[in-house]
């Protein structure tokens, strides 16, 4: 749910990074944070376990330039990917404006990817949303690994809706900003459609 | 999804006045108002060294988690949450089912006083948010005029 503030002329939107455990959600957000000029970003908050697995969420606010005299701000969140944190995932998904699904390209993680996409569908449905109506981008991450599955196969399994898709290597930033820009564009276009 | 929350200057001023008064009357250090989605709405008192954006998102996370717990034990929602620290205490409550009101106070105040003042301020805030929601439903055609170029230009720098 976007927040439009006429007082300081700001629009704030919420983008959620979703996907199975260890697929690279936190790494995406860390890269964006590290590469963003200080004045355009807030603090990165990570509620994580001692082994750096996301426990509740990562969060940081990102300012992205003006549109019609309004400053646009995106609140980026990641969910915890581990299966048993489903209750927390549902909480983070509330009132979202856009979703990035980060898929782990490694062959042996394909079942986990499929399960996570299904989990996203279910959780959105439970809150009365539909993935096909939500601004949504698919990212095939970990393309640098030798056991990466072919993109064709991943598309067939994970992206039947034909969402815009990007290949990525999150620790070095490959595809990271491309993914973010695409989802931000879709979110803004969606705002227009709905007003 | 795609529902919007719109704040105009008039409501913002009213909200700020209520928060300022609450800060004074409750002897609070900080009064902070955010929505359940983690957006900062207003903040008054000693806010100089406070990272209010982070605070807003953590408070929203906390309320969300508490709401999840409430559901599990068949409670509707916890209306108030209280954290006691060595110096500072935090009182958190929900206004009009959708806004989070946070009062940070130390030994110059007391939980009893804070509760009392929060109750009154909540009623006033609830009225403001009612107006705000009505305006949100009718207004905000701002985005209808956005072009693809506007969106592309945002990323050009
Ligand atoms: N080789 C390689 N490693 C990656 C890539 N992306 C992330 N990783 C590594 O994968 C591990 C897990 O990444 P995270 O970003 O913490 O994963 P996550 O999705 O946030 O995991 P959860 O918080 O448990 O849901 C880290 O060691 C990353 O460095 C990638 O594209 N290639
Ligand atoms: Mg993580």
Task: Please explain how this structure is put together.
The complex is a heterodimer of chains A (195) and B (157). Chain A is α/β, with parallel strands linked by helices and 195 residues long. Chain A has a single domain, classed as Rossmann fold (3-Layer(aba) Sandwich), CATH 3.40.50. Helices cover 32% and strands 29% of the residues of chain A. In chain A, strand 7, helix 4 and strand 8 form a beta-alpha-beta unit. Chain A is globular, with a radius of gyration of 16 Å. The model of chain A has no long low-confidence stretch (mean pLDDT 93). Chain B is α+β, with helices and mostly antiparallel strands and 157 residues long. Chain B has a single domain, classed as Dynein light chain 2a, cytoplasmic (Beta-Lactamase, 2-Layer Sandwich). Helix content of chain B is 46%, strand content 22%. In chain B, a hairpin with a 4-residue loop joins strand 2 and strand 3. At the A-B interface, strand 1, strand 4, strand 5, helix 2 and helix 5 of A face strand 1, helix 2 and helix 4 of B.
Q: What is the mean predicted local confidence, pLDDT of chain A?
A: 93
Strand content of chain B: 15-25%
Bound molecules: guanosine-5'-triphosphate, magnesium ion
**What's the shape of chain B?**
globular
User: Could you tell me the radius of gyration of chain B in angstroms?
Assistant: 17 Å
CATH class identity of chain B: Alpha Beta
Inertia-based shape of chain A: globular
For this structure, what is the CATH class of chain A?
Alpha Beta
Fraction in helix of chain B: 40-55%
CATH architecture of chain B: 2-Layer Sandwich
End-to-end gap of chain B: 29 Å
């Amino acid at each position: 749910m976007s927040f439009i503030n006429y007082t300081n002329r700001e629009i704030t939107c919420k983008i959620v990074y979703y996907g199975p455990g260890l697929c690279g959600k936190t790494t995406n957000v860390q890269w964006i944070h590290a590469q963003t000029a200080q004045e355009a970003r807030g603090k990165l908050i990570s509620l994580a376990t001692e082994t750096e697995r996301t426990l509740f969420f990562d969060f940081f606010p990102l300012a992205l330039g003006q549109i019609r005299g309004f400053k646009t701000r995106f609140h980026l969140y990641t969910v915890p990917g581990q299966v048993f944190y489903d209750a927390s995932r549902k909480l983070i998904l509330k009132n979202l404006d856009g979703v990035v699904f980060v898929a782990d390209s490694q062959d042996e993680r394909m079942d986990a990817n499929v399960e996570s996409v299904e989990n996203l569908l279910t959780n959105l449905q439970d809150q009365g949303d539909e993935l096909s109506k939500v601004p949504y981008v698919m990212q095939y991450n970990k393309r640098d690994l030798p056991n990466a599955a072919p993109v064709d196969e991943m598309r067939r399994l994970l992206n039947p809706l034909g969402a815009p898709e990007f290949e990525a290597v999150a620790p070095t930033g490959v595809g990271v900003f491309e993914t973010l820009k695409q989802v931000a564009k879709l979110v803004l276009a969606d705002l227009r459609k709905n007003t | 999804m795609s529902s919007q929350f719109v704040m105009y200057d008039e409501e913002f001023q009213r909200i700020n006045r209520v928060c300022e008064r609450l800060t004074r009357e409750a002897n609070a250090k900080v009064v902070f108002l955010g929505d359940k989605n983690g957006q900062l709405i207003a903040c008054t008192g000693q806010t100089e060294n406070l990272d209010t954006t982070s605070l807003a998102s953590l408070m929203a996370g906390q309320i969300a988690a508490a709401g999840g717990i409430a559901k599990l034990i068949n409670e509707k929602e916890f209306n108030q949450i209280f954290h006691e620290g060595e110096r500072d205490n935090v009182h958190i409550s929900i206004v009009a089912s959708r806004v989070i009101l946070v009062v940070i106070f130390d030994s110059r105040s007391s939980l009893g006083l804070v509760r009392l003042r929060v109750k009154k301020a909540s009623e006033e805030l609830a009225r403001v948010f009612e107006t705000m929601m009505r305006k949100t439903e009718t207004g905000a055609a701002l985005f209808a005029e956005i072009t693809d170029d506007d969106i592309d230009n945002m990323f050009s720098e």
